[in-house]
From TrEMBL:
One of its GO terms (molecular function) is oligopeptide transmembrane transporter activity. Keywords: Membrane, Peptide transport, Protein transport, Transmembrane, Transmembrane helix, Transport. It holds the Pfam family OPT. This is OPT superfamily oligopeptide transporter. Its main location: membrane. Belongs to the oligopeptide OPT transporter family. It is a multi-pass membrane protein.
Length: 722
């Protein structure tokens, strides 16, 4: 697959292009503020929207052209503020800075939860430093691993291909780029107009299912075929015509990833239906799909949500006497199986990459080899000005994109080392000042876990485009290291999981900078500034909203404008793992098999690997047990109707077009993806503020057969939820 990055993207560079312009700083900082504010606000909204890189790319391009036109091109002002035409390096720098700020920090969620459910809250300085340190800690580790996870061609980060295709198309002046621009504009405009219909006027187009239409009084049909509403059903054989839910990943993820996803999806259907209708873990007494905890008094005719505050004392610690009265809660059986398969996926990732990609990974730790450690004692190792390495040998197998980056000054490793050191020191101070209850040694363990996960999940992400969430294993380890304290578990998760997630985003942006031929020091600067701007505004908005909307955020329903559902879910998971792990997951408990998924995951790839060794030409090496295992729990939440349509689009793009229309695929596939993604993001953003109540009172579309106000696919609504 890595050849796509060589043929779909131009391997050329003009070192004279300057990204350090007033236009870049003005738009970069402005869009960073804009995207950070919106990302934080959306954490507290009933409907979630994330600003995609394509959206920011389109907006920044339009604004930059306006500045280029308005600001004089001559004289003192023109020389400093409008020195040349807007170029793709300015554009890439703006995009990296603003997209970095658009990632709402998990630390802001921790602060919000602490303000809403706990008595002790940190001060402003601690909060800001906590957000910033937790956001950049993973950057330090990822930066030190960039030689292994970014520079090689094989780590091509598929998610970057559409945005790079768009950048190249917008800025290349050759006549043969006009057809690509035409594809982009047509795709953008058509999807912009179309999305108004399924999003607002006719929501039934999100989930058209003939089985639901034929039988509307059966919960069995709802569980199997329903999928137009969150937590409704598995959406089998549904047709989805809403591109927001189909997603652009169908067009850019490699065929290997799509096939493994399909296998996991098929297994997911079998596992969820088998667990529920087999009544495993009292499955029939609780909803088919749900992320909440339920009281053991629940039954199939009435679900009782578990009151987590009733088992905690005033300091947020578990009170075992109160738990004995309330009883140990249950999860929906499908959610329990989802956590189990996620655990399998995490450890299967390690085994899979060790078996198939060991030569790529071992370089990450080569500096610890005894010969390398001995060489550090030699004076010549420190005399970098006398370095006499064989450049020709180094260049022989180098990625052509990276080879062009040698024109620019590299970021020294000590820059990333300093980032790691400072963020760790600041984070350590913050966990004590924030009254997290987390020990210094647990903080170190969280950072070590994050470093290990960054290597393996980073390799998986770069090779396949699949980003594996490692939150379950981090929460589980934190729960057993420091049990009985949900708040401590949240902080352990913050530095163990969020650092991993942030590192993957840095690796992705470093590869984007390599494709765009943006100097490494410029990419580094954009990352740091975007993160700092995001940290400050994340805090300001979090404090403002949690103060002004406290009662609404604590309520179950929320309103059409504000909702605390995301925070409640995060807090519930912390209570489950941090407070109740001994009672829910230990040996002899109801969900004892859930943590054992970690052990199963280590062994799961071995049979496939052995088959590959015995039958090397049979294609068993294309099977990735990690991706398959994660997707065995894929349908645990959200709207599930798009799955079949997504697979149709994916195989049309990655199989049919790539195999039978290869020239068209290389020239137009990723620009088509960018146009569809950009048009969808823009219209959803506008609809959210104009009609969906993001800025005030919503304006609903009139109710009729295409907008029925209930389950939009006409499947039966579960009466036990009432």
């Amino acid at each position: 697959m890595e050849e796509i990055a060589l043929y779909a993207l131009h391997v050329e560079d003009d070192p004279s292009l300057n990204p350090w312009t007033f236009r870049m700083w003005f738009l970069g900082l402005g869009l960073s503020c804009f995207s950070s504010v919106l990302a934080t606000i959306y954490n507290f909204k009933p409907q979630g929207i994330s600003l995609s890189a394509t959206f920011l790319c389109v907006v920044s391009y339009v604004l930059a052209l306006m500045m280029q036109f308005i600001i004089p091109k001559s004289g003192f002002i023109g020389r400093w503020l409008n020195p040349h035409s807007f170029n793709h390096k300015e554009h890439a720098a703006i995009l990296i800075m603003s997209s970095t700020a658009a990632r709402s920090a998990m630390a802001a969620e921790v602060i919000a939860v602490q303000r809403l459910w706990y008595t002790k809250t940190p001060n402003a300085a601690v909060c800001i430093f906590l957000i910033f340190s937790s956001q950049i800690l993973g950057y330090g580790v990822a930066g030190l691993l960039r030689k292994v996870l970014v520079y090689p061609t094989k780590f091509f980060y598929p998610v970057n291909l559409p945005i790079m295709s768009l950048l190249e198309t917008l800025h290349r002046k050759e006549a043969n780029n006009k057809p690509q621009l035409k594809i982009f504009y047509w795709a953008f405009c058509i999807i912009f107009v179309w999305e108004v219909i399924p999003e607002y006027m006719m929501p039934i187009l999100t989930a058209v299912n003939v089985f639901c239409l034929a039988k509307r009084n059966s919960m069995v049909f709802t569980n199997i075929f329903g999928g137009g509403n969150g937590n409704e059903g598995l959406g089998i054989l549904s047709l989805c015509l809403d591109f927001q839910y189909i997603g652009s990943s169908a067009l850019y993820l490699p065929l290997k990833t799509q096939v493994n996803t399909l296998i996991g999806y098929i297994l997911n259907l079998a596992v969820f239906l088998g667990v529920f209708y087999g009544n495993i873990w009292r499955a029939r007494d609780f909803p088919f799909l749900s992320q909440l905890l339920f009281s053991p008094t629940s039954n199939s005719t009435k679900y009782v949500v578990f009151n987590q505050t009733a088992v905690l004392d005033s300091n947020g610690h578990l009170d075992e006497a109160k738990l004995a009265v309330e009883g140990v809660p249950y999860m929906a059986a499908t959610f329990a199986s989802y956590v189990l398969t996620q655990n399998m996926a995490i450890t299967a990732t390690i085994t899979h990459l060790v078996l198939y990609n060991w030569d790529d990974l071992k370089g990450a730790w080569s500096f610890m080899a005894w010969d390398n450690l001995k060489s550090l004692a030699k004076p010549s190792a420190w005399m970098f000005w006398k370095k006499t390495e064989d450049i020709e040998e180094e260049l022989r197998d180098m990625d052509p994109h990276y080879k062009l980056m040698r024109h620019y000054k590299e970021c020294p490793n000590w820059w990333y080392g300093i980032v790691l050191l400072i963020s760790s020191a600041v984070g350590l101070v913050c966990i004590y000042e924030a009254h997290s209850g987390m020990s210094w040694w647990a903080f170190i363990v969280a950072n070590i876990l994050a470093s290990i996960m960054i290597l393996f999940t980073g390799a998986q992400f770069g090779l396949t485009g699949f980003s594996l969430p490692v939150q379950p294993i981090i929460q589980m380890i934190g729960a057993y290291l420091e049990p009985g304290n949900p708040l401590t578990n949240m902080y352990f998760t913050l530095f163990g999981y969020n650092s991993t997630n942030q590192a993957l985003l840095l690796l992705q942006d470093l590869k984007l900078g390599q494709y765009a031929k943006l100097s490494p020091r410029c990419t580094f600067t954009m990352q740091m500034i975007g993160t700092l701007v995001g940290a400050i505004l994340n805090y300001v908005l979090t404090i403002s909203i949690t103060s002004a909307q406290r009662e609404i955020l604590l309520s179950i329903e929320g309103t059409h404008i504000w909702s605390g559902a995301g925070l409640q879910s995060f807090n519930t998971q912390a209570v489950t793992w941090g407070g109740l792990a001994k009672y829910m997951y230990s040996r002899g408990s109801v969900y004892q098999w859930v943590p054992l998924g970690l052990v199963l995951g280590f062994a799961a790839p071995l049979p496939i690997y052995l088959l590959h060794r015995f039958y090397p030409k049979a294609g068993f090496n294309y099977l990735n047990v990690s991706i398959i295992a994660w997707h065995v729990g894929w349908l645990v939440t959200g709207i599930n109707s798009p799955c079949m349509t997504t697979f149709v689009v994916a195989f049309w793009s990655q199989f049919y077009l790539r195999k039978y229309k290869s020239e068209w695929f290389l020239k137009y596939n990723y620009i088509l993806c960018a146009g569809l993604d950009g048009g969808t993001q823009v219209v959803v953003f506008i609809l959210s503020f104009v009609f969906f109540g993001a800025s005030g009172k919503p304006i609903p579309f009139p109710t009729y057969w295409g907008n029925n106000g209930g389950n939009i696919d006409y499947c039966m609504v579960d009466p036990a939820n009432g």
